[in-house]
Structure of Mediator of RNA polymerase II transcription subunit 31:
Amino acid sequence: MATEASQDVSMESPAPPTDSEPKYGGFSRFEIELEFVQSLANPYYLNHLASQKLLNQPAFVAYLAYLQYWNKPPYLRYLTYPGPTLRHLELLQQETFRQQIMSPDVVQRLVEEDMKASVDWHRE
């Protein structure tokens, strides 16, 4: 169950960091989650997560669902590459995609689509 799987993770979206916020290895929860969610823009990293069987673990899938708060203000403005980051986060909500990302062909297709989107965006 998603509730049991996410007991250690508060289901509230973290606020941007403040001086009084607890630190984990010197970083705020906000900073850690920002770094992780931005790493999802990398198709090779998604493949790595799948190869480590993380995308099959209910707790990890629940965490990915929790990270959907990055789609909304004010969090959206902190993303460096919002297009691929949010697109991949959305795709990761689908069990089929979590299985397919193991395929090098799917990874390559994502890389090519992301590069094309980047080129098209710069042309506009």
Remarks:
- The two ends are 45 Å apart (CA to CA).
- Confidence is low (pLDDT under 50) at residues 1-9.
- Helices lie at 2-5, 29-39, 43-51, 58-66, 82-91, 95-100, 104-123.
